[in-house]
Structures are given as C-alpha cells and as structure tokens.
Amino acid sequence: MAKDRPVYMGPRLRRLRRELGLTQSDMAADLEISASYVALLERNQRPLTADMLLRLARTYRMDMSELAGDGGAEQTARLQAVLKEAMFADIDLPALAMQDVAVNYPGFTEALLRLHTAYREEQLTLADRGTGGTGDATDTPDPVAETRRFISARRNSFPLLDDAGERLAAEIDQAGGMAGWLKARHGLRIRRLPSDVMAGSMRRLDRHRDAVLIDDALDEAGSGFQLALQITYLDMRNDIDALLKDGQFISDSGRRLARRALASYGAAAIRLPYAAFAKAVEARRYDVEALARQFGASFEQVAHRLTSLQKPGQERIPFFFLRVDPAGNVSKLLDGAGFPFARHGGSCPLWSVHQLFGRPRQVVTQWLELPDGQRFFSIARTVTAGGGGWGAPRVERAVALLCAAEHAHRLAYTQGVTPSEPTPVGITCRLCHRSQCLARSAPPIGRDMLPEDYRRGHAPFGFADG
C-alpha cells in the first residue's frame, strides 16, 4: 500500500509566524516544541505532521483548510502558464518539478512571476517605441498606451480582484441587493435623479447627504454597473493600489487610467462573479446575448468580462476584444487571444466589425485568416452609449470578440453551421503583403511600387514581387 506523501509547508509556516509577529522561540513555546525544530520545519527539513497541523490550528484558532491552503495549486498553475511560452520551449520542465518549486519556494515563484510580468510590460513598451516614430524615451507619454501595456502584460487577468468581487457579490446577495448592502456597510442610500439635476454625471458619491446619486436615464445594466463601480472604489481600494504598485507608468494620467480600468474590472467581478459566470459561459456556449439577460448586464459588459476569464486553473476560452466608432477610432482593446492587432494605424477594413453600423444590434460572425495562415473566429455587434430619453445624446460603437479557430467549436455561434471560407485579412495595410487586396489604403513597408505607364491593375497599388 502506497504511503501518503510527506507534507512540507516550511514557507507557509514562516509566513504565518511573521504575520503573527512571533519569533521562532515564541512559536516553539506556544507549540511546546524546541526552537530548533521550528527552524527545521521552516526550512522544509522536517515534514509537518497531522498532529502538528492540529496543534497549530488549536493554538492560533485557525481553520485547518485555511492553514493548509490550496497546496500551491494557484501558484503552480500561474507558473505553468508562464513556462509554456516559446522562450522556455527548449528547457525540460516536468510538471512535478514546477509543482515542487511553487509549493516549497513560494517566495521564489512569486519573484519569478513578477519578473516575467515586468518583462512583458517592458517588451510592449519597446514595441510601441519601435513603431511610434522616434523611439526616444523623452517622447510625450501616451496614457492610453501605458494602460494597455499594463493590462496586456497581465493578460487582463487580476485574480485578486476576482476573489474580492466574489466575496462582495455574496455579501450583497445576503443583504438582499446593493441598496441594503450599501446602507448596512457604509450608511449610504441610493437616489436616482433626473439627468439635468445630475449635471452631466452618471454617478456621484454625495458624502454630505450620505447617498450614491445615479442618473435615472441609465438602464438597468448601466445603473447596476455604476453602483458596482462605486462599491469597488469604496471596498477594493487597497487591492487596486497593490496592483498598481507593480506597474511601470511614465505619467500620472497613465496611472489614473489604469486605476479606472482596474475599478471597472472590479465592478465586473461583482456583477459577474468569476465562478458563477465561468460556469454559465460553458452552459450557454458563450452566447453573449443570453449571458447578458441571465446576469442583467449589457452585451458590451459581458463581452468585456469574457476576456478576463483566465484565472489560473479555471481558464476559459481566451478572447480578444475591440471597440471602435464609425470613424475607426479604437476606444477599447483587450488582448487575451494573441491576435496581432496593429498598435498604430488602422486595422483591416475587411474585418466585419468596421461594417456593422448599417446593421444595428445584429450579431455578425466571420472567419478570418491572417497572411501567415492563422485563423480566428469573430463575433461583432453594435452597442449604444448614452440615450435614455428623447433628444438625449447617444453614441453608436461596434464591439468585437475574437478567438483562435481551435476554440470556435465551443461557441453557440458555430453550432450546426458549416464553416464558411475565411476572409483574408491583414494586421494593417503597411504590414500586409496581399498584392490583390482591393481594400488596401497604403502600400506595404519594404516593397517597391510599380510604374503605371502601360498597365494599371484593379488593386489600388501595384508593387514588385521582390
């Protein structure tokens, strides 16, 4: 009969002792063992027996599961995700070895993960400089680019906020809703006021009257999100500050934009709690409209949340998200699918997301193929911001979700439908070498133009093969 594997919890024991403000001698006295034995336990030179676990739980009044933790499962999953990258492909890293590192050396694991995140962020910074013109570090900072790098380097996944959001969602549910919870927790009531009284604000915290003021022109999804956003600013402030400390920001505006993005993430984690939402997306086969109705959210809110379901060990399909206006301006971009979107200049006009404004509220699907053969599946639809009354200003935008073709069979949009021929698209005209594209707006970099003295083709530009 196989023996149980010895349990070594040295780093966790050391962390517990430090959190309690104890020396090794203090803990030894509390547990009625020698200080040298505590030292051996902390260095993983002795396993932690069941008797010692019980003694720790009784002495410090801790729940056994809290003390045992998850066995390093989350850290192991995060480490495995990082080590799957191409730069580590030639290194033999057995899964058991990674688990041993994560369990026995959590401090080292966290240091490696932070270093990798910083590396990704710096790579994105260099890529932006390389395509942005001068490449000079003294260029005027771009707050939007800073925020996108911060989010992209972390794959738009912030488990700290997901966990906090789930806890708050459970408390809100027990309180009977946000109104009851805000009153009990913060002594705040909710007041819905006309737009002219709100003077251009969708939401405002009125400390003088102990109220959260909400524009009554907002629909259910909008007002619910704004209330969740206010709760995030009240109760996740420390978590957001902790995440921002690891960011590399050149400007205060970049940090503020990133803070706003994290707050929106936290609000989504409250409105669409990770475990419940991740379970629902599988049951609904990623049907965005059905999920929106189930959770009382908007199409855009659900599409946005789908990009963040990458919590280690609980991952779902990775998505790329884009929001554009009729002029092609990108107002939101989140990449979890590895789609090579152009950081500068326009994207490919053959992508259906740019052709939706004549088909409002209609979900349009499309298969896409890049010049290198990569295939993706796109779901796109228009969304409306503003409105709520006659004459109220509103803005029409289009949002798109995109995943790698290998995941498309799991989506409701592909069920019972024969895949159509993919649309050949490029990243941007300057980087696309498809010679016969009628939608081209500029010749590709590095190709010589052909003279038109004797011949003009259908394509806007003719360029040499070499």
UniProtKB/TrEMBL annotation:
SMART domains assigned to the protein according to its UniProt record, in alphabetical order: HTH_XRE
Stretch forming the signal peptide: none
Domain HTH cro/C1-type, chain residue ranges per copy: 13-67
InterPro entries reported in the protein's UniProt record: Cro/C1-type_HTH (IPR001387), HTH_RamB (IPR026281), IrrE_HExxH (IPR010359), Lambda_DNA-bd_dom_sf (IPR010982), ScfR_C (IPR018653), TransReg_Diox_bact_type (IPR050807)
CC annotations in GO: cytosol
Gene Ontology MF term list: DNA binding; DNA-binding transcription factor activity
Pfam family, any one: ScfRs
Keyword terms: DNA-binding, Transcription, Transcription regulation
Family of this protein: Belongs to the short-chain fatty acyl-CoA assimilation regulator (ScfR) family.
Listed name of the protein: HTH cro/C1-type domain-containing protein
Organism of origin: Sphingobium vermicomposti
Higher taxonomy: Bacteria, Pseudomonadati, Pseudomonadota, Alphaproteobacteria, Sphingomonadales
